[in-house]
Fold these 2 entries.
Entry 1:
Amino acid sequence: MNYAIREVTVPAAQAAAAGKELIRLNIGDPNKWDFETPEYFKATLRAAVDEVDNGYGDSQGEPDLREAIVVREHEKNGISISSDDVYITAGVSECINMLMGTFLEPGDEILVPGPGYPSYAQYINFFEGQTVPYRMIESEDWRPDVDMIRKRITDSTKALILINPNNPTGAGYEEKDLRAVGDIAAEYGIPIISDEIYDKIVFDGKFYSISNLASDVPRIILNGFSKVNLMPGWRVGYCYFMDENGLLDDIRNGFMKQMRARICPNVPCQAAARASLQGPQDYIVEMNRKLKRRADFTYKRLNEIDRITTNKARGALYMFPHIDLKGTPWKTDKDFVTDLIMEEGVVLVHGSGFCEEFGPDHFRTILLAPEESLELAYDKLEAFLKRNANRSQRPRTMRLMIENAISTTSSAIVRASVMSSDVEYSWSSTVKW
Ligand code: PLP
């Protein structure tokens, strides 16, 4: 499996070993910047360790957390589900893993937005399914290409994924697009899996959920506590099934078998997750205010740089700018990102890591860093492009730095090969973010 967002830590570790100061714009972890887990979530976690039963819990998730999620989803989306429809997982990641494991037989196809969060393709691949990307249209604010969804449906299509608001583009799906996707899914009898982990991180416009817009088709909505609730390390996520006619009963049974096999989610962290839904929510307003300022800054500053153009983000934590690599020494966005890391210490993620077909010639950046850090990073990016974009070869200084990094870094951790006129990486590592 390849997970681009953390793969860039390999050249980043090399750059750090060679003495570069890193500006890490690669990971969507609010807690790595100035977004702090509210004190009352922490207090609940501490108290839970002292006061709750620290034994195993319910395999489906603690009933009081599931009830709190029923209330949250009713308040946000106006829907009526029961706590039996809600399943708690170790982050949305475990949910994706178990859902793909349940849906897929080898060769089955899943429609996934391109670009899109890479975990989906990785787990589809792991279970020997086929990822079938549908285009998100850059010139139309990254809205989904509904015609392409229709064209790419086959007899082997088992589900359609939405990521809304979107990672990596920062787009929010419009109501009319969600209705159109819902209609196609209903026409072909394809369940929709909608990842809404950023549903309350919307700083421009309104959030629409497929949960209340496509009642003719079974929907599984994924959500979690890593982003909006600022507890990514506590690993709590969930999904709920909306399947009025029981068409997904077999899937639910298979999913529940996996939930039982992994015994239960972390019990004290579920108590904190429940508190985060029931306590004051004003920190979210402040969070969105900060993100909006940073998104506006990013949009303006990146569009000033020659060869880079970007759309506005409406939500989530990211932007996905286009970079014109024609006539530059970089054959791919991965080359570009690698050299930028090595020469300037600015860590971005290559666009092709979010979709081989619709991601190339882009990079993903985050909106989480304060303006001073973003400014420094984009000044470095601009200087780097001015210095190198018109060269015929990738910079020699960088090759020397890589050689130096290799000689000072344990080869068990980082492997790299340096060729005479070009540089190629073997990005394999256990280095952390
Ligand atoms: N889904 C999306 C769209 C994400 O962007 C992320 C993380 O960045 C995840 C899921 C993973 O979330 P979790 O921390 O709950 O596993």
Note: The radius of gyration is 22 Å.
Entry 2:
Amino acid sequence: MSDLSQRADELRRTLNRYAHEYYVLDAPTVPDAEYDRLFQELQAIELAHPELRTVDSPTLRVGGQPLPQFEPVTHQIPMLSIRTETDVSEQGALAFDASVRKELELSASDAAIEYAAELKFDGLAISLRYEDGVLVQAATRGDGATGEDVTQNIRTIKQIPLRLRESAGGAVLVPKVLEVRGEVYMRRDDFEQLNARQRELGEKTFVNPRNTAAGAVRQLDPKITAARPLSFYGYGLGVVEGWDLQPDTHSGILAALAEFGFPVCDIREVVQGGVGLVAYHARVAALRDDLPFDIDGVVYKVNSIALQRQLGFRTREPRWAVAHKYPAQEALTVVEAIDIQV
Ligand code: NAD
């Protein structure tokens, strides 16, 4: 037992260091697959021995501390994590469906659950607040409860509307308050071009699109952000006030976000039951190398907002969503640290 307790302690210290390098400094020193492997080992120990779980465990926390250089933003609705399914085979999708059905106390004869399946973009989560249709604040996720105010930087990203578009005929009326949550990321071709430019200038090249995008958003000088080619996909909502026609499905919300003028990824599907999730996972597996941007797996979300509410949350993640990854392609190599440049 003391060996196990020692191992849990070692994992916590290592994971907390990796999380700080990744979330706070945007400069990871190990590949994600290695972080995920250690995270799952700690989770398994804590599940078997809850008495070994401590309050500083990375399994209980979201992201990293916001940097003091930025104004803090309190998230009225926390920006949570998503549980990662440990089984990367198709069984992982079936296991998630089974867990949802169990939570909802459904029997085999009950109808299949409808899911919204989408890509897990590999970038930085952002919450965009619109009041009367105008972008007033943009914040990072930070530790989930408090993020960093990066409004001036986000304003430089051309794909993010400064004002919501009112759809023709007023079918989608602009809400009083709308927080749109989504991912800022960098396309692979933009990343290559950026590095080509760095080489021409004799400057240091960047390590990967994810950390380059995250580092670009968390700059103190918006001019630096503006010089980096960033893209955005919307995937959800935070606070909403005064939206009479708010859709009652996740897929309906994504369609409305597209109407408001946000880029929403087309590689999304509404599917029925675990079988539908398996088919989506396989479809994305076949095309992921050819995508113009990196992904970190796929995400399955229960499509009905009423069922999402019924399912609710665990400490750091909703019960109605899961991330399903693909077998890791990265070898364990030490990633060259990049400067945060703030
Ligand atoms: P997470 O696994 O908690 O998932 C939630 C995040 O997914 C959201 O905040 C959002 O940014 C993102 N996301 C992308 N597409 C989405 C979609 N369609 N719908 C909803 N959310 C979507 O995210 P995390 O805590 O940022 O962890 C991501 C990965 O970071 C982990 O899998 C881990 O491998 C990696 N990580 C690596 C290191 C390292 O040292 N290499 C350290 C910490 C974390």
Note: Residues 18-19, 21-22, 28, 30-32, 35-36, 63, 81-82, 84, 118, 120-121, 125, 141, 183, 235-236, 296, 299, 323 surround nicotinamide-adenine-dinucleotide (CB under 6 Å).
